[in-house]
Records
---
Amino acid sequence: MFIRHLSVVDFRSWASAEVAFEPGPMVLVGANGQGKTNLVEAIGYLATLGSYRVPTDAPLVRVGAERAIARAAVISGGRELRLEVEITPGRANRARLNGAPVPRPREILGVLRVVTFAPEDLAVVRGDPGERRRFLDDLLVQRTPRLAGVRADYERVLKQRATLLKSAGAARRTGGSGDLRTLDVWDGHLAAHGAQLLVARLDLVDALRPHVAAAYAQVAPASVPLGLSYVTAMTLPEQRDTSVFEAALLSELARFRTHELERGVNLVGPHRDELALTLGDTPVRGYASHGESWSTAVALRLGGYELLRDDGLEPVLILDDVFAELDTGRRDQLALVAGKAEQAIITAAVASDVPDPLAGGRFDVHDGEVRRVR
């Protein structure tokens, strides 16, 4: 899989831009603030319908514009597919596949698969558990696009149920009882969607673990092994079946109902789980050095990349301004992997930041223009 052409309109700093790519390493070089990261962010958005830099869509639209458009021509399995997403803050986004509108934007998920490694990935290692849950769920959707619907439905249930918990809890504190029949219905929805998400995450962690361990050993050969495990407060059933997990979640919801009503929050479900990262027996978060944290971030992304490749899904590899942050050993190991990718799109402030094996096609990004120079 590779991107043949990218175009954006009113996306971030770009009024418009067109870039013709080829397979192999493609390097975008430009000083900070010239917009090179904005271009790869648009690619990532077409693949995931989200930004790896910001949690909402509003910053993606150029100041003064009403909407932004990102388009790409993708070569996959020997045929060309054309993607388009129109981003309109405050309204539902719209998407097209091969020029035809799709009922929902998430219908295009899976057409373009991308693994992005950026400085923001340190937050996956050092940030709160939500960052690591997002890492898992984004990779889940890349592997199995239908899970985007499960993820969206689960988040919708959480919001609806939290509102109901607050109102029912307030009613009980003032002598009323609240309408708990509706809460029973939402419990069923949470357990149904949560069970699917939980089983999928557990399967993903099992599949991802050896790839991440191997990637860490490659970029940090002198270090102790990197481990990852899925941590949840509930006792997991031995049988990894969604119906069994659904029943377990319903039982847990019943057990915590009084506490949830008192606090007005959802206390049960995969939204409270954690991906634990360890170096030997020591947690990475809070204990790892700066270099170990970077190695862990690299290993997570490369592990995800290799997992997708194992699934037969050759993703586009994006390396956004990361080589300047890495020491020589980590740069060289990352370059080895990127050099084998069908397509690697790399951004750098100066060309010398990019290792020589990745000196393929080069574009200068300057003063609102993208110019091919090699």
---
Amino acid sequence: MLARNDLPSRNEWFDAFARKASTFCGKPVVFLLAVGIVLVWALTGPLFGYSDTWQLVINTGTTIVTFLMVFLIQNTQNRDTMAVQVKLAELIIAMEGAKNKLASVEDLSEEELEDLHREYRQRVDNTGEALASKRRSKGRSR
């Protein structure tokens, strides 16, 4: 018998499930299966006289699948985003001269992010102007 600590937590279970389900659902064969289901449904239209029930079958099915997939996709996207943030943080911290405060920029408020974006946009513009000026002066000295 497994001790309580040997069982995966609910989060671990869901993460593993979401990862496997997302990987599986992203395969071409699953897309082709979905297309096949829609084609079978469409071809059975005349058999069921294009009834309200016939239409309700596809509407209900697609709504349920979409509803459940939203949670799986969001979980996968959250995990992937966090992984990218960790990798970027490692690069920022390891790079000499980089501003380490940027390693946790995802924790800033939207207003703080917008301010930081404006600051960096200004730095980009200033750097572009400085490079253009340097190129012009280099061209004159030749």
---
Amino acid sequence: MPIVQHEFTHKILEIVNAYFPNQATKVLNSSELLQYLNIKTKAANKGSKSRAGLANHYAIYVLVEDYLKNEFHIHDGYDNYEGSQFTKLLQRQRELPFGSKLQNHALNHRLNEEFKKYFPILSFVPILRDIKTNRYWINENLIKFYLDDEQINIAEAIRDIIDAYIGVRTEAFNEFMIYCQQMINIQKQEPSRTIEFIRDLLKPNVDARIFEIVSYAILKEYYLDQQIYWGWSSDELNTEYLILYKTGRTNANDGGIDFVMKPLGRFFQVTETISVSKYFLDIDKVQRYPITFVVKTKQTSQEILKILEEQASQRYKVKAIVKRYMEAIEEVINIPELMRRFDTVLERGKGAAVIEEIVLQSRIEFNVQAED
């Protein structure tokens, strides 16, 4: 397959060339694993708002690190190695930057499945696993091969490439956090810059995690000024402001609901897709309890609902079933609606509060500081 060229490709070639002088391009062309890493590092120089996708990088990294630690790049015998324990690999992944909440998906199947999509006719996958013993190996066929009749081993280069990528991503995120702090500081003097900063974070190409964080920050502040009256009798009414709670990490694939509102008990789910299977799965998780969907799109709410109903009609064929699912969609909030609500928040003079919440949630999400 043609080699993808992007800004970080130069860094990859530089690292490979340090180990194999004047042969970097040839090594890259000969290695599917290096080509895969080249594809997966396109986000390196796009700023922290682009998705880093570190799970698969880290799955490779910890296995290569184990390989190097045992000096198999110097000595033979990896075919007799008992393999690395899953618990140790997962623990090591979580020690790496932004890795504290990583799960087992990449190690167990996700990396191999994605790799096969890029190299469908290749008979090798990166990770070998013994389910019975729960031991793991990096596939040595992908890191040790012949180049011009000379056997080479690219394990050290792979480690250094991923280290460099982590460094760039960390720097980009730190710059993002500094910029957030600067926006807080200048908000009173130059509110227009704050507005444009947040508007820039509400675009379809923004990292899903950042979009979820910004959506939460806006909606939390938007609802915070609204109050309801309730009670067990008409003579004794309680007054409460609406409070939106973030229920977990972003994009965690944990089956949870993203936001919950007290005291109304409204559920909110943030999504990038307009797929009936995704929406209806979320609805089924809570036994068809009404859900508000926050969608990273500029398509209108009516267009989204029409697409979902059409997909549902093709899938289920029974109008009663489609009707019950569609009735469980309480509201659809798209990017333009988020912007309108942000304008309302700005009218209340709460722009700085939105940025402060973005900073707080970003630090928690990206493991910059522990959650209080």
